[in-house]
Every structure is written in C-alpha cells, then in structure tokens.
Amino acid sequence: MEKTPLLDGCLSVIAQAFMDSFSLVEQHLDKHSPTNKLLHAKDIPQYKQEVKDFYKQVRDPAGFSNAEFKAFLREESKKDGHITDIPVHL
C-alpha cells in the first residue's frame, strides 16, 4: 500500500503506542527517550489496564450455555441468511 512519509510516521507512532500497551516490561522514560514513546507516555498505563481487563474477560467469560450460543447464531443467521446449519458450523 502506498503511503506518504507523513502518514507512515503517524502510523508508526500509533503502532508504538499499541506495542507499549501490550508490553509486559515497565518503561522508564526520560527527556532522552524517543519522541514517539513520549507522545503517548501518559496514556500507556490506561491502555495497559484496558488490555488487562480485556484478557481477564476473555479468560473468565460471562458464562452462557452452548444452547444459548446456538440460539444466538440461529437468530443471526435469519438476519443475513449465511449460516444455515448451526451444528455443522460449530
């Protein structure tokens, strides 16, 4: 995909923020740290907490039964007509 140098720089900053949010290593930033890390430094703790909360929800699902899930899929399949035989797709 063609992109301008400006867009590439912006995407790099966003990518760095995502990587820092998922990092298990605590970062110690100072005035000599790269600008792209300093730009979102104050937001990273919040992003890290959101990542932890997300994975906690994945690990400990709300708990719905297999029958409830199949019923949900049946209702969704009626809307778009793509899923016709639920047991085959599960």
UniProtKB/TrEMBL annotation:
<dbReference type="GO" id="GO:0008360">
    <property type="term" value="P:regulation of cell shape"/>
</dbReference>
<dbReference type="GO" id="GO:0050772">
    <property type="term" value="P:positive regulation of axonogenesis"/>
</dbReference>
<dbReference type="InterPro" id="IPR008936">
    <property type="entry name" value="Rho_GTPase_activation_prot"/>
</dbReference>
<feature type="domain" description="Plexin cytoplasmic RasGAP">
    <location>
        <begin position="1"/>
        <end position="80"/>
    </location>
</feature>
<protein>
    <recommendedName>
        <fullName>Plexin cytoplasmic RasGAP domain-containing protein</fullName>
    </recommendedName>
</protein>
<dbReference type="GO" id="GO:0005886">
    <property type="term" value="C:plasma membrane"/>
</dbReference>
<dbReference type="GO" id="GO:0030334">
    <property type="term" value="P:regulation of cell migration"/>
</dbReference>
<dbReference type="GO" id="GO:0007162">
    <property type="term" value="P:negative regulation of cell adhesion"/>
</dbReference>
<dbReference type="InterPro" id="IPR031148">
    <property type="entry name" value="Plexin"/>
</dbReference>
<dbReference type="Pfam" id="PF08337">
    <property type="entry name" value="Plexin_cytopl"/>
</dbReference>
<dbReference type="GO" id="GO:0002116">
    <property type="term" value="C:semaphorin receptor complex"/>
</dbReference>
<dbReference type="InterPro" id="IPR013548">
    <property type="entry name" value="Plexin_cytoplasmic_RasGAP_dom"/>
</dbReference>
<dbReference type="GO" id="GO:0017154">
    <property type="term" value="F:semaphorin receptor activity"/>
</dbReference>
